[in-house]
Amino acid sequence: MSRVQHLVVEEGDGDQRLDRWFKRTFPLIGQGLIEKMCRKGDIRVDGGRVKASTRLEVGQTVRIPRCLMKRLRRRPSARGYQRRIPSLSGLV
Fold first, then answer.
1. CATH code at position 46
2. Fewest 10 Å CB contacts: which of 6, 49, 55, 87?
């Protein structure tokens, strides 16, 4: 079973850059990952490869890759958001 999803660009999202559309639709995805997936050809618009700066039009179909869907389903662990503070006991 393929987990690739296809989303259609709706009326309010037309004439917008692909990377900005992604950030609006999936706010947890960073710019670097969007750029990388475009370079690799994982993100496609109407079946063709695109750059992150491509302008989307109403009615176009955006292919959302399987690896992105896996990332969105994972829950961040509590450790992922905590900063590690080094122990000060060795400095005394």
1. 3.10.290
2. 87
Predicted local distance difference test score (pLDDT) of residue 8: 94
Report the pLDDT value the prediction gives residue 2, as an integer from 0 to 100. Answer: 63
Number of domains, the chain: 1
Answer whether 41's CB lies under 8 Å from 49's CB.
yes
Q: Which domain holds residue 36?
A: 18-73
Give domain status of residue 40, yes or no: yes
Predicted pLDDT at 92? 46
